[in-house]
Amino acid sequence: MRLFPLLVASSLAYTLHAQATQEQAPPKPAEQKTLDPIYAQASRESARDHEYANTTTIDAKSLQSRQATSLRDVFALDSSVSVGGATTTAQKVYIRGLEDRLYSVNIDNASQYGNLFHHQGNITIDPMMIKDISVQKGTPDAYMGAGALAGSMSIRTKDARDFLRDGQRYGALVGLGGYSNQGFKTHLAGFFALKNTDALLSANWTNILGFSAGDGQWVQGSANNNKSLLFKLNQRLSERNTLTLSYNGLNETSTAPFATNLAERNVTLFAHTNYNHTATLGFTRQADSAKPSSTQVRTNLYFNQRSLYLKPLSQAGANDHHEVGDKNIAFSNVGYNLALSNQFSVLDLEYGLNYQGVFVADTAAPKDAINRAKESGHIYGGFVKTTYTPSEHWVLGVQSRYDVFNYFDKNNQTHLTQGFSPAASITYLPTSTLSLRASYAYLTRGAMPGDATLLGDKDVLIHKNLRPESIQNIELNADYSGSIFCARVAGYYSRLGDFINSYAHDHDHSDHIHTPGEPHSHGGLRQNMHAPIEVFGYEGGVGADYKGFSSYASIAQSFPTYKGYLLQDTYELGAVSGIIYNLSLQYEFPHYHLRFAWLSQFTQRVKYKGYDIYNDQTGFIDKAGYSVHNLYINWEPLGEKRLSLRLSVNNIFNTFYIAQTSPFKNEAMESLDSSVRRAMPNPGIDARFEVGYQF
Questions:
Q1: What is its main location (predicted)?
Q2: 396 CB contacts (<8 Å, ≥6 apart)?
């Protein structure tokens, strides 16, 4: 396949002001118009939500209107974001073809780092908790960018003031919903806000009893039972000082095969239990309004633990593969972040420090002198970021991180890696509605714990001299935002070197430890790859807002390659899909608080000769194309934040399809030519009705 004609421009820009910078003193007009992530506050979705190609922003109102229960629902409007896996347990996010493991993902400034299981997703959150999401593609936010290679994803949870109506001091919300594809949801919340204190307690239960695919066949392992809890307390200590305490937790259970992203027969069924607990304590000191150049302070402590329990419910199945077995894994992150910032007349400055500790263990795994079935890592880093605005037409941005990574692996080896992560961008604004931007970033990530399910596999060893991974991201952007129309286009190129492949065959027996008196392992070896991964891609979109009507159409495609071939789907790295087109239409009757919306997603068939980096071989891959169409109706007959009636019909034409970013192969060591695709199909038609009332 000829790739270079498809390179529209070059890569993933860096957004100069993150959400927390917006919470400072009001930004300068040029910066506010073109650089800051935008969190839509309108009562309906708007084409304006898609103004910037290098930033994806999603708010709670958008998620509520789609009755989002999964990551597939969350990112449904963005053609550059694909979600593989059919159930909420299995879903992985691919942004511009790269897995979310290459991004820095945080919830309320708490890192969600870690890969519990390659057959499950990495981001675990109930969409009902989400206030907004900002995804920065290419260069991560410097504040939370430690260990990020492709960008950053920042998720904020709701607080009491997101529920309260104007003038309301306390209230409660009750919600109940049902799904035609066998499921229901309940939601309860209580909240209050005084002059200096506000608090929220919210609980949600979503029980999907299972679903049928578009061909009418019941999908084994498709049930999910999710319970979530959110607590948020904000205490204003003084005019400038605020303390925030938050907790969000999710408990997810299901009965499914060992690999939840696969549709398999004659295999052992397992009881799957997943937990995700995140707690943060944050402090913010605003700059003195009388002294604009005074220092703003943001700091937080956090704890995150994700756990996975797998217990077989039946005797071994005829089609079980070698890795099937009990798992009792806990993956913990603890950390501290500090950011200081100052605003001068033409210069903004932000700088700070980060620490993160990572601890993972599988207590159900066998242990010996070589394999201790647990790992740990520590990141010590600092950053500085400047934004220089010499005139209303030019904005220059420069940032850099320096991080040290200390990794103690399961084979009792210590890896000390480090590196700088500089980035720069230049933005030209010829008019108030048009911005042209170019950016470059060189990002470094040191060796850290990988796939936790490999901890108990004595045949998978760790190379004794792991090198830090590094990536170069280049991007060109053009963004237009007029009174009615908006448009965006981006082209990007990324070159990822020394990628640490956790699933490589052990071809180099001299570069790792082995059990004395025993032969070298002929299983897996976690090691750096010798050749770079290159990613070419583009995305673009056009939209319009006129009175009650809103529309947006977008297109995106990326080309992750290795040694001149497109990649075979690779855990912890990326997946290939065809061209993706999205079309969304919406009309609102403001007087009646009634909104109708339609979303169509088209994914073209992709057929190619792909490179299998697990086995250093090539093979032919063919993924079918599909189109999926959804209808959304939202009515608030008593006005906003009172009575709500929502109807969603997903996959309205009952299309049978397997998401192209779901895995093509079952096992890493399996030959590509002999592989039969067994990824779980996505749900068929699913009508959802929800009623909610806020007191």
A1: membrane
A2: 387, 388, 389, 390, 424, 425, 426, 427
Provide the token pair at 512: 């790792």
pTM for the whole thing? 0.89
Paired sense of beta strands 394-408 and 374-391, if any: antiparallel
Gap between the Cα atoms of 310 and 272, Å rounded: 5
Q: Which of 477, 668, 495, 445 is nearest to 569 (CA)?
A: 668
Q: Is 4 exposed, middle or buried (0-12, 13-18, 19+ CB in 10 A)?
A: exposed
Record the tokens describing residue 102, joined without a space: 């290459």
User: Residue for token digits 């992530």?
Assistant: 37
CATH of the domain at 202: 2.40.170.20
Does 204 or 141 have the greater pLDDT score? 204
Tokens of 337: 């972040």
> Which candidate, 176, 206, 171, 207, places its Cα nearest to that of 189?
171
pLDDT in tens, 148-201: 999 999 999 999 999 999 999 999 999 999 999 889 999 999 999 999 999 999
* Residue 451 amino acid letter: D
* Residue 25 counted as domain residue: no
CA diameter of the chain: 80
Q: How far apart are CA 664 and CA 569, in angstroms?
A: 6
Which residue type, as a one-letter code, is found at position 348?
Answer: D
* Tokens at 414, concatenated: 């210590």
Strands (E), 61-119: 81-84, 92-95, 98-99, 103-107, 110-111
Q: Identify whether 45 is part of a domain.
A: no
- What are the pLDDT digits (tens) for 608-636? 999 999 888 899 999 999 999 999 999 99
Question: Which residue, chain included where needed, has tokens 């309260």?
Answer: 164
Cβ(439)–Cβ(474) under 8 Å? yes
Closest CA to 404 of 376, 445, 434, 432: 445
Asked if residue 436 belongs to a domain, the reply is yes
Residue 609's domain comprises 55-508+521-694
Residues for the chain: how many in total? 695
Q: Which helix (H) or strand (E) holds 73?
A: helix 71-74
Show the tokens assigned to 633. Answer: 């109706």
Q: How many structural domains comprise the chain?
A: 1
User: Two tokens at 79?
Assistant: 């053609």
Residues 476/438, Cβ–Cβ less than 8 Å: yes
Domain contains 33: no
SS3 438: strand
